[in-house]
Amino acid sequence: MSSKSRLRFMSIGFFLFILLSTPLLIKANESEVGDEDLDGLEELLAAEKEEEEALKDQGDKFSEAEIVKRAQAIVVELNNDNTERIVGSNEYVLVMGYATWCARSAELMPHFAQAANSLKEMGSSLVLAKVDAERYSKAATFLGVKGFPTLLLFVNGTAQPYTGGFTG
Questions:
Q1: Helix (H) or strand (E) run with residue 88 in it
Q2: Of 4, 100, 137, 145, most Cβ neighbours within 10 A?
Q3: Together in a domain, 38 and 85
Q4: Looking at residue 78, what DSSP letter applies?
Q5: Residue 165 lies in a domain
Q6: What is the pTM of this model?
Q7: What is the annotated signal peptide range for this record (predicted)?
Q8: SS3 letters for 35-54?
């Protein structure tokens, strides 16, 4: 074979090699990209799952907050105008005297509201009421609120002294 024929043969062979190997290179590259895509997809799905769980946790927190908010709506808000009427017209009234700046009042309020919700669900005739003693000082004085928080039980309009112990 002459050098010209060899060159032509090698050129055609190289061309055929490139032509035939291109699909193999493309498939190999696609599988690599596919693996990268799968890895990326798995990462994306994991991130979405984490986000959904975070939203679910926030949803639970909002649900708890919503429950407390609804329960607080069950607690009667006493003021200077309605205190005597509410305490006198209900057989059992448990009053919480509080101040907005008092940390212990803030800690007790959600528990007081949840108790009101539970008592309502049980069909209890006990009315739970609260009075902002600084805002409604006349009502607080009438009820006998002297510190914060104060819990007072009224039976048929009369304050009942607490004779139990105290732990704090």
A1: helix 83-89
A2: 145
A3: no
A4: E
A5: no
A6: 0.58
A7: 1-28
A8: HHHHHHHHHHHHHHHHHHHH
Q: What single letter denotes the amino acid at residue 17? A: F
The answer to whether residue 35 scores a pLDDT higher than 60 is no
pLDDT above 70 (res 140): yes
Q: Are residues 5 and 22 in the same domain?
A: yes
pLDDT for 91 beyond 60? yes
> Is 130 contained in some domain?
yes
Supply 26's token pair: 């493309």
Number of domains comprising the chain: 2
80 and 142 share a domain? Answer: yes
Q: What is the pairing mode between strands 150-155 and 92-98?
A: antiparallel
| Rounded alpha-carbon distances, angstroms, from residue 34 to 21, 25, 29, 38, 89 | 20, 14, 8, 6, 75
Which two tokens mark 53? 């769980």
> According to the 3-state scheme, what is the secondary structure of 120-148?
HHHCCCEEEEEEECCCCHHHHHHHCCCCC
Q: Which pLDDT score, from 0 to 100, does residue 13 have?
A: 55
